[in-house]
Amino acid sequence: MNLGISGKKAIICASSKGLGKGCAMALAREGVKVTICARNEVALIETATQITQASGIQASYVVADVTTSEGRSELIKACPAPDILINNAGGPPPGDFRDWSQQDWFDALNANMFSAIEMIRLTVDHMLKKGFGRVVNITSSSVKAPIAELGLSNGARCGLTGFVAGLARQHVRDNVTINNLLPGFCDTDRGRNIVNAQAQQLKIDPADYHKQFLANLPAGRMGTPEEFGATCAFLCSQHAGYITGQNLLVDGGLYPGTF
Description:
Blueprint: E1 9-12, H1 18-29, E2 33-38, H2 41-55, E3 60-63, H3 69-78, E4 84-87, H4 102-130, E5 133-138, H5 151-171, E6 176-183, H6 189-202, H7 206-216, H8 225-235, E7 247-250
Parallel strand pairs: 1-2, 1-4, 2-3, 4-5, 5-6, 6-7
């Protein structure tokens, strides 16, 4: 399927590895001019090179922390009027809510709620002027099925979900859509760290727990960044203009609910 977005410009936040990288790679393969960002320049250069080699599209990169105003400013300077915005930021660490300070909560809200809202604010009006825009926020399956040890993430990402629910309906008639992609357990550093934290909490050998954990997943495996990226690319396509304000699970059937 031709997604109809060749030549479009995209910002993909936190995209030197993991799900962000999967999204950047999938978009570039559709002919999108991608601008990726992360804090680690070495990893960024390697990823930009891989994207360019795989897609034939020259990937641009910005060394920036999207959770800071300075980082967001650098991103917008590099790509002032993107057609596509993929919001992503590393999740806060797991733990017990009794140990979290007010600052821990503020940091989580800044990284996983405010930074995405601010990136939308900085880009959405340009999309409206062009009559095309796609915003995809990478959140988490914990928005629908909270993960006990990820309380900081549960709270912050639910806040973003509520905000998007109100905003997404305002601009769809102008062909600007805003959706959330909710990954389950994926084969990334973050996914593996969560499983390791569960093993530690249960006092089980991580290798043994990992096998047990995978066996209990409906799909029998973790998802891949490539699968996630392909889903993201479709939501960014010309064919997805009638999809907005949705929370799409990419979790291999992990969420057990009907709705």
